Amino acid sequence: MTYTENGTTIRPAKEADLRRMWELSFRDKDPEWKKWDAPYYPHEPMAWVAFYEKKDKLVDQEDYWLIEHEGTIIGMVGYYWEHKPSQWLEMGIAIYDPAYWNGGIGTTAFRMWRDHLFNAMPLVRTGYTTWSGNERMIRAGEKLGFQMEARIRKVRYWNGTYYDSIRMGMLREEWEELQNK
């Protein structure tokens, strides 16, 4: 399954994509994207061989898809179960290449991923967690109709400053209402 809108595509990863995904995500010690994606957690580079050994968790998986823009792999979307028995799913996105930031590509990819998840599963709610230092991620969620469900104040510490943890969410009925507009 593949979704495309305005030159942006999300799709399951293939084995041939892994080298590019490694280059974007785990080759470098201090990649630019990590300043925005939970920088308070350490980033450890990974050798190509070690990354490739994880291929069974990355290739053709339901919970890990690639983002392409005009044929170039630039990031990923994914999800994990916070609590599967109650269908509590959290989603995420990473645009690794800064050349593709601030142009709406991430918002488009995140919308397609949100729609795919609601269409493919009997979810009551989906959401994501970010931090107050990543204003672009908060704005993207607000544009897509996510509600700020929680702000846990001053629990993320990075570069000498405390930040808030932000939990955004959307209920199925809110998503359905957006589909009918």
From TrEMBL:
Pfam families per record: Acetyltransf_3 (PF13302)
Entry superkingdom: Bacteria
Family annotation (CDD domains): NAT_SF (cd04301)
GO molecular function: acyltransferase activity
The UniProt record lists the keyword Cell cycle: no
EC code: 2.3.-.-
Annotated N-acetyltransferase domain residues: 8-173
Classification via Gene3D superfamilies: 3.40.630.30
Keyword Transferase on entry: yes
Record keywords: Acyltransferase, Transferase
PANTHER family with a match to the protein in the record: N-ACETYLTRANSFERASE DOMAIN-CONTAINING PROTEIN, SPERMIDINE N(1)-ACETYLTRANSFERASE
Full protein name: GNAT family N-acetyltransferase
Lineage summary: Bacteria, Bacillati, Bacillota, Bacilli, Bacillales
